[in-house]
Specification:
By secondary structure, this protein is an alpha/beta fold. It is 37% helix and 21% strand.
């Protein structure tokens, strides 16, 4: 995957390979990759390790991006590592915004599916969710209305039960902390719900959120939302609005997501990252993380 440059960078990109501990790439494999791509092989001991993962950077890749993809995609699947083709000199501090999806990206669940658990509707809701995330249902707003209708009458107390089960995906806190330390604004842009997004905002110190608001009456979900539905276009607009408020260009934004409704946001950003993404999202993104945690975003940069 090849990242869009965000600043004035040299013409020779780098190939970043990263892999979860305890896995290590064999020197012979690294030398093979470097030779095939016309890149500088890393010197001995060049591997960097942090937070349960390691990374190697091959500099000055001479091959075309299409040739890199053709070589690296099957190798990554075979050996279980992540890879990305990034510009020389890519620095986190050159960006101003980090935009994150919530469900299955920042957290380890699809919250609307989990809400269906209490009423026996999880399987039906999950089927619609999966089709929407793969892009098979192109109208996200309609897919959300269909799923919410199945939740009508669900007790409000179920929200708290789902919150208690919710866990952050690996590396989430490290990514957000590093982004804040580098001066980035962190936006949570989600087709999920404010009930959860606001709690995550307080827990993680997120700077802003854009999410759907559940309609609740007499202690039960009505099966509707209040206000406009946050779909893929709205998530993209949230990124653009945040950039306007920060006085920066969209190319100075990083966006991370997993589903089809994240594609507009990832496409608008200077660096779009698929986290455990659906195939169409991985194909469109600048980088994909299938094995490492969210902090793998940080290893794409040479320095903060």
């Amino acid at each position: 995957m090849s990242a869009k440059p965000s600043t004035q960078l040299s013409q020779m990109p780098h190939l970043v390979l990263q892999f979860p501990a305890p896995y290590r790439l064999e020197p012979a494999l690294l030398e093979h990759i470097a030779a095939q791509l016309g890149a500088r092989a890393p010197r001995a001991g060049a591997e960097s390790a942090a937070a349960g993962a390691s990374a190697v950077r091959l500099r000055d890749v001479g091959a075309e991006a299409s040739a890199v993809r053709a070589l690296m995609t099957p190798l990554a699947e075979q050996h279980g590592f992540d890879w990305a083709l990034v510009p020389d000199g890519l620095r986190l501090r050159d960006f101003r915004l980090l935009a994150l999806d919530m469900d299955s990206t920042l957290v380890n669940m699809e919250t609307i599916d989990e809400l269906g658990s209490a009423t026996g509707m999880k399987a039906r809701i999950a089927e619609i969710t999966e089709a929407a995330m793969r892009g098979e249902i192109t109208d996200y707003a309609e897919s959300l209305r269909r799923r919410l209708a199945l939740l009508a009458g669900t007790p409000e107390s179920v929200l708290e039960q789902v919150w208690q089960r919710m866990q952050l995906n690996p590396g989430a806190e490290q990514l957000i902390a590093a982004a804040h330390a580098a001066g980035l604004h962190v936006l949570l842009a989600t087709g999920g719900f404010t009930w959860f997004a606001e709690r995550l905002q307080r827990r993680l110190g997120l700077d802003s959120i854009r999410a759907n608001q559940l309609d609740i009456a007499d202690g039960r979900l009505t099966g509707r939302t209040r206000g406009p539905i946050v779909d893929g276009a709205a998530k993209r607009q949230a990124l653009l609005d945040a950039c306007a408020e920060l006085g920066c260009e969209p190319r100075q934004a990083i966006a991370v997501g997993d589903g089809a409704n994240d594609l507009p946001m990832l496409g608008a950003a200077g660096l779009g990252v698929a986290y455990r993404g659906k195939p169409a999202v991985q194909q469109a993104a600048d980088a994909a993380l299938n094995h490492c945690g969210l902090d793998g975003v940080l290893r794409l940069f040479e320095e903060a």
